[in-house]
Amino acid sequence: MSFPNGFLWGASTAPHQIEGNNLNSDFWANEGRMPGMERSGDACDSYHRYREDMRLLADNGFNSYRFGIEWARIEPVPGEFSRAELGHYRLMIETALELGLKAVVTLHHFTNPAWFAAEGGWAAPPAIDRFRAYVETATSILDGVEWVVTMNEPNMLAMMTGLALKMQQATEAGVEWQSPTVDDGPRPPLPAPEPEIGKRFVEAHHAVRDLVRERTGAKVGWSVANRAFEARPGCEAKMQELQYIWEDLYLEGSKGDDFVGVQSYSAQWVGEDGIEPYPPHPDNTLVGTAFRPDAIGIAVRHTHEVTGLPILITENGIATSDDTRRIAYTEGALQALHAAVNDGVDLRGYLHWSLLDNYEWGHWAPTFGLVQVDRTTFVRTPKPSLAWLGGIARANGAEIA
Predict the structure, then answer these.
(1) How far apart are CA 275 and CA 244, in angstroms?
(2) Confidence category of residue 183, pLDDT binned at 50, 70, 90
């Protein structure tokens, strides 16, 4: 089997998770404040080693790389833009193009400038104008970029923003805050994103979409975290209700985009009481989710049904220390995607999460990478999965059973 001509084969990263020392971001400021949360520190030092990282992809048969540019570096204080940082990210783009990699550039991947958070973040009146000003400046370095993701997982960002507001309210009231996702038992469902916050992100996306398209000529969209819900018998209406809150609000916000990014890692059942926790199981991943390679197929079919847009897999992978399971998982995911293509889904590429074992938003233990990174020396050690997936990329999927 094979995938369409021009199919993108690559891997994804996020700036805060790999660059290191993102001192001006709100996430950096919050690291270490939550119980059990580790610091990102130097991360993978990819701020200095990006050429080495990109070459690992190019030399192993991949043709694309998704990476982000960090707003907190580009605009360290309101209205002051760093020419040096803009130049840094321009060099990254030029390096990707030099190595034969199509650059898929993400403009916002969860983190904000610390000053933006201090103003009230996304809930503050000037937030969208602030974001637009940043994007307008960022477009000046995007020559040659064919794919732009305006925001990464706005549905997860809405959930995170809602949690931050509740944490702030608890602090102001003198109440000890305990994250609802901390549990010694089965991994609990995440709290649902607030629809009103979600609509704010739809507005922000629309405020910059045409600007990016007009100034760069790139294809523009955003990526949505797809939960790949499955309904227990008789619970279809409940599933549809949750799909709107978690996904469809954002998928419908893609109307008018050139593509939509799909990101999925595991499927999840919906019962009478809502989303069911992942039960403990020996096959569960390092982040407690079920081993479900077929989830990405469920995700793209639902996204296709809601949007009808071309789809780019902007993230898909597994947290595991066993690389043979990573290969098995990815093979199953690609089989599910090929079946969806045969059924009429317009799929444009597959970008694996992640290129590197990186900082997973407070924790170092979950390893998603095709490449291991020594956190002391920063030596990169490719795993067998890198060469395996690169071989699939060279054959455009023809070597998948």
Answers:
(1) 13
(2) very low
pTM value surpassing 0.90: yes
Q: Choose between 201 and 168: higher pLDDT.
A: 201
Q: How many CB atoms lie within 10 A of CB 117?
A: 19
Q: At 113, phi and psi to the nearest 5? A: -60, 145
Distance CA 33, CA 7 (A): 42
**Residue 217: how many other CB atoms lie within 10 Å:** 13
Residues 54 and 67 sit within 8 Å (Cβ to Cβ): no
| Contact of 53 with 142, CB cutoff 8 Å | no
Q: Which pLDDT value is given to residue 179?
A: 55
Q: What is the pLDDT of residues 131-142, one digit of tens each?
A: 999 999 999 999
Tally Cβ neighbours within 10 Å of residue 219. 19
Assess whether pLDDT exceeds 80 at residue 171: no
> According to the model, what pLDDT value does residue 32 have?
73
- Residue 245 tokens read as 């809150």
Task: Please tell me whether residue 372 adopts helix, strand or coil conformation.
Answer: strand
Domain 8-394 fold: TIM Barrel (3.20.20)
Region of 378 (left: φ > 0; alpha: ψ -120 to 50; beta: rest) is left
Domain residue limits, the chain: 8-394
Torsion of CA 199, 228, 367, 162, to 10 degrees: 30
Report the alpha-carbon distance of residue 258 to residue 59 in Å, rounded.
30
Give SS3 for 275. Answer: strand
Helices vs strands, H then E, count in the chain = 14, 13
* Helix, strand, coil percentages in the chain from 3-state DSSP, rounded to 5: 40, 15, 40
DSSP letters for 69-96: --HHHH-SBTTB--HHHHHHHHHHHHHH
Q: Determine the Cα–Cα distance for residues 100 and 68; give it in Å rounded to an integer.
A: 18
Show the 3-state SS of 335-355: HHHHHHHHCCCCEEEEEEECC
* Residue length of the chain: 401
Question: Which of 139, 153, 128 lies closest to 89 in space, CA to CA?
Answer: 139
